[in-house]
Amino acid sequence: MNAAAARRFSVAPMLDWTDRHCRAFHRHLTRRALLYTEMVTTGAILHGPRDRLLGFSPQEHPIAVQLGGSDPADLAECARLAAEAGYDEINLNVGCPSDRVQNGRFGACLMREPDLVAACVAAMKRAVSVPVTVKCRIGVDEQDPAEALPALAGKVVAAGADALIVHARKAWLKGLSPRENREVPPLDHDLVFALKRAMPEVTVVINGGIGSLAEAEALLAPRDGVALDGVMLGRAAYQSPALLLGVDAAIFGEPPDERTPLTALAEVRPYIAARLGEGVPLHAMTRHVLGLFQAVPGARQFRRHLSEQAVRPGAGLDVFDAGVDIIERAAARRAA
Question: What CA–CA distance (Å, rounded) separates 189 from 175?
Answer without folding.
Answer: 23
